[in-house]
Amino acid sequence: MGQMEQLKPYLERAMALQAALVLFEWDNETLAPEQAGKYTAKVQGALSEAYQEIMTKKEVRSLLEKCGQEPGLTERERAIVREAAEEYDKLEKIPPQEYRAYQELVAESARIWSKAKQEQDFEQFAPTLEKIISYQKRFAGYQAKEGQRLYDVMLDNYEKGFSMKKLDEFFGLLKEELVPFLHQVMEHGKEIRDDFLEGGYPEEKQRELAEFMAEYVGFDFHRGVLAESAHPFTTNLHNHDVRITTHYKERMDSSLFSVIHEAGHAAYELGVADELTQTFVGQGASMGMHESQSRFFENIIGRDEAFWEPIYPKLQEMFPEKLGDIPREDFVRAINKVQPGLIRTEADELTYSLHVLVRYELEKMLMEEDLDVRELPGLWADKYEEYLGVRPKNVAEGVLQDIHWAQGSFGYFPSYALGSAFAAQIYRFMKQSMDFKGLLRQGELEVIREVLRRHIHRFGKMKDSRQLLRDMTGEDFKPQYYVDYLKEKYGKLYCLK
Ligand code: ZN
Question: Could you tell me if 376 and 399 are in contact, meaning their C-beta atoms sit under 8 angstroms apart?
Fold first, then answer.
């Protein structure tokens, strides 16, 4: 029996445990009864320990090493071994007792964060955040290659090939170009009316719209489920079971665009090749590439005027009192309205990456300059004022708004902005090679989806995001395309120049 054949059962067991963990996470967010949490956590803990046990077995290490040297492996097998070896390294380098202590800290920290946020009291959360940061730095230290900076190690965990050097260029460009442009839009842009999007959209009607929209953009209900949760998300067991959620709010565009966004994530996972799913390369390439697909669906497809041509009458029919007298052009302008605000998850397309810029700069200071966490609330407010022209009145709408740091996710935020920029580069390429707007106008979204599947989805983790971009568009990542895209779209929308 070849080495690969011997390795396979271990990896299959590890993948099965992962799938079980994913299913519990999904259940916790959607259907699990309120009091289940503490008890189910034990089950999840046991599963996650079993996963770690398998992945750090001596046999697994020696098989991974041998496979790494075997010349006869296929490309697919080599990629699986590469990803599994990376996972092994990550798990093996952290001393188990430290890892357990950290897990307990993080399990507790979401509750502390949530209470501090509710009571608008940063001091309640500060000591926990300090501990999480110190663990994160230690773990990054274990993982670091010689000379590698700690924050670079963290960034690498979410987006390979995007170190501080690359991201400084990216965010520097956004700051230089988009901050003054936003100013111009707010000063000289034409008024846009969006009051009709709010209130008077009954939940059952919104649910009907969500299902219609998911189906319309190609979400496959034979291989997928749409449910409700506090924060919309997508998860998947494999490429035949991909699940998305939405939430229903007073503003109808909240659920509407959440559904299109999550359907974009889902298209990615549904499009992974059958021979890759349920392996270590059977998922989207990276956080950023995933976000590029969801944002492509949400913004580039879903907020385009041409997209609404065939379906806006249906919307008017569903909500006659609200939209009956609103022309399509006004609706499209409303769903694209720019409104600098304090909350990242509610941000419009133009200001979104500036929210991420604030987080990137602060994370960098925390990890590389030993910034005292107690300075975060003030710095956060200053940066919001400088880039977005708004200042939080309290920490709940400021530094405590996101759960990420409480979960130990440092280095995650940049991928949100990168995703939007990847999407713009992909869009630029597609526009040159097909009649993009014509397809939207005809409702032929499957043609667009098929191009994305062929160039991106089917490869899973076989290639990283930069490789995917290069192979698809013929160019390395070019952030200028993102800036150009935004300036062109919003310059036109706001009748600038
Ligand atoms: Zn997303």
Answer: yes
Measured in Å, residue 168 CA sits from the centre of ligand 1 at 23
Give 262 Cα–ligand 1 centroid separation in angstroms. Answer: 6
User: 26-85: per-residue pLDDT in tens?
Assistant: 998 899 998 887 788 889 888 988 999 999 999 999 999 999 999 999 999 999 999 999
Treating both helix axes as pointing N-terminal to C-terminal, what angle do 58-69 and 75-93 enclose, rounded to 10 degrees? 140
CB 160 within 8 A of CB 286: yes
Contact indicator for 177, 326 with CB cutoff of 8 Å: no
Assign 14 a pLDDT band (cuts: 50, 70, 90): very high
Share of the chain above pLDDT 90, in %: 89
Alpha carbon separation from 325 to 205, 316, 328, 331 (Å, rounded): 18, 8, 9, 10
On whether the CB atoms of residues 217 and 263 are closer than 8 A, the answer is yes
Q: Which of 77, 87, 262, 298 is catalytic?
A: 262
Task: Report the alpha-carbon distance of residue 306 to residue 449 in Å, rounded.
Answer: 16
Residue 463 clears pLDDT 80, i.e. is over it: yes
CA of 320 to the centre of ligand 1 (A): 31
Q: What is the residue-averaged pLDDT of the chain?
A: 95
Q: Could you tell me which residues come within 8 angstroms of residue 171 by beta carbon, excluding any fewer than 6 positions away? A: 356, 357, 360, 361, 414, 417
Residue 428, CA distances (Å) to 30, 56, 282, 480 in order: 37, 44, 27, 11
Q: Would you call 262 a catalytic residue per the annotation?
A: yes
pLDDT tens column, 322-376: 999 999 999 999 999 999 999 999 999 999 999 999 999 999 999 999 999 999 9
Cβ neighbors of 277 (< 8 A, separation 6 or more) are 238, 239, 240, 460
Phi, psi at residue 3, to the nearest 5°?
-60, -40
Ligand 1 centroid–CA 264 distance in Å is 8
Tokens describing residue 73: 């492996």
Cα 401 to averaged position of ligand 1 atoms, centre (Å)? 17
Residue 236's Cβ-count burial label (10 Å; 0-12, 13-18, 19+) is buried
**Confidence band of 96 (pLDDT split at 50, 70, 90):** confident
Burial class, 38, CB count within 10 angstroms (exposed 0-12 / middle 13-18 / buried 19+): exposed
**Confidence band for 100, pLDDT divided at 50, 70 and 90:** confident
pLDDT at residue 142, as a whole number: 94
Pair of tokens at residue 71: 């010349």
